[in-house]
Design the sequence.
């Protein structure tokens, strides 16, 4: 006599479910985790060319300057640097030679990080320093970051003017590298 | 299980980001135009003319040394090294380049110029009115970085009419290259 009337129960559940469906429209909520991985980044731009000139005719050094523009973000435990390398020495032959130590530079007016100190001799074989970036460095935005965007550092070049150079026009290529960790 | 795997993957991703170094490069071309130039340094500050003779048997002599620095154009370049007496012997009764007291009195010199220059030949008479030659060079001439040597061997007549005393003149050297 306690046997349930299964057929009757099924009918009741069905009716209950139907009753919970709104008569019209629907609303709902959901959540999604968004994860952004902020990597250390560095980028730079340099002028396509720069001229070295001399004043007078008494074998004073040739001089010139350029500005390196850069953007950087380093991690709280990282840092970074900008370096330069003479990737192609002065050509044609008969003129100055960076490999021979004729090209030097100084760094100044860095708006983020620390410019190199003293006179640096440019090299065809190794990277030489231009700038050092600290940990937690970032370009632009102010606050904990620099207010400038992009940042910049000036380089002043000095090229020995030796009488032994043959007259003519000589060109060298410099490659700047920025790294950030 | 899936939950732990997800957390592990997120941590791994974050650590990968921290360890990753980012590099970027840029290039620029440095150009320099090297033209003809010339310079000199007189290494003998004061040249004393003296004679060993006490009988007018020998002129007053002395040497002035200098270093010259040159670079001339590869094609058609030239250069000269000259001197001029820009201040004659001062004081009355002594030697004079402009108006020698006796016929035949003169301040003369002989030249020595190392390669790549060519020295003047023979005896040159110094002048207060015109530059006189010391050396020349041609196209594509280059001195060494430390400079090349040149010198002037002076000779001043020892005329008995000169009053005793010390007399000073100034010689100015001029160098030019094209």
Sequence:
């Amino acid at each position: 006599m306690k046997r349930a009337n299964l057929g009757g129960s099924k009918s009741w559940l069905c009716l209950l479910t139907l009753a919970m469906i709104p008569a019209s429209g629907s609303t709902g909520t959901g959540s999604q985790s968004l994860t952004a991985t902020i990597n250390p980044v560095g980028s730079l731009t340099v002028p396509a060319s720069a001229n070295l000139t001399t004043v007078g005719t008494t074998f004073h050094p040739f001089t010139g300057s350029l500005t390196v523009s850069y953007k950087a973000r380093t991690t709280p435990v990282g840092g970074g640097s900008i370096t330069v390398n003479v990737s192609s020495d002065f050509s044609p032959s008969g003129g100055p030679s960076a490999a021979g130590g004729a090209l030097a530079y100084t760094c100044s007016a860095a708006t983020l990080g620390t410019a190199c100190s003293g006179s640096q001799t440019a090299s065809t074989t190794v990277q030489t320093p231009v700038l050092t970036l600290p940990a937690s460095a970032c370009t632009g935005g102010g606050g904990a970051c620099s207010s400038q965007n992009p940042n910049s550092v000036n380089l002043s070049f000095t090229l020995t003017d030796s009488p032994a150079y043959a007259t003519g026009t000589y060109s060298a290529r410099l490659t700047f590298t920025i790294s950030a960790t | 299980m899936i939950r732990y795997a997800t957390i592990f993957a997120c941590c791994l991703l974050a650590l990968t980001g921290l360890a990753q170094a980012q590099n970027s490069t840029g290039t620029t071309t440095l150009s320099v135009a090297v033209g003809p130039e010339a310079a000199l340094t007189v290494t003998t500050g004061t040249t004393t003319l003296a004679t060993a003779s006490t009988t007018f048997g020998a002129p007053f002599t002395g040497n002035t040394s200098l270093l010259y620095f040159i670079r001339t154009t590869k094609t058609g370049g030239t250069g000269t090294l000259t001197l001029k007496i820009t201040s004659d012997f001062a004081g009355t009764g002594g030697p004079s380049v402009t108006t020698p007291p006796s016929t035949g009195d003169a301040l003369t010199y002989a030249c020595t110029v190392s390669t790549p220059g060519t020295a003047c030949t023979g005896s040159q008479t110094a002048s207060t009115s015109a530059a006189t030659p010391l050396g020349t060079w041609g196209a594509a001439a280059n001195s060494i970085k430390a400079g090349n040597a040149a010198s002037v061997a002076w000779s001043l007549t020892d005329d008995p009419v000169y009053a005793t005393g010390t007399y000073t003149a100034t010689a100015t050297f001029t160098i030019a290259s094209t």
Q: What stands out?
A: Confidence is low (pLDDT under 50) at residues 7-18 of chain B. Chain B has one domain: 37-45+58-177. The CA atoms of residues 79 and 177 of chain B lie 4 Å apart. Chain B touches chain A through 40 residues (CB under 8 Å).
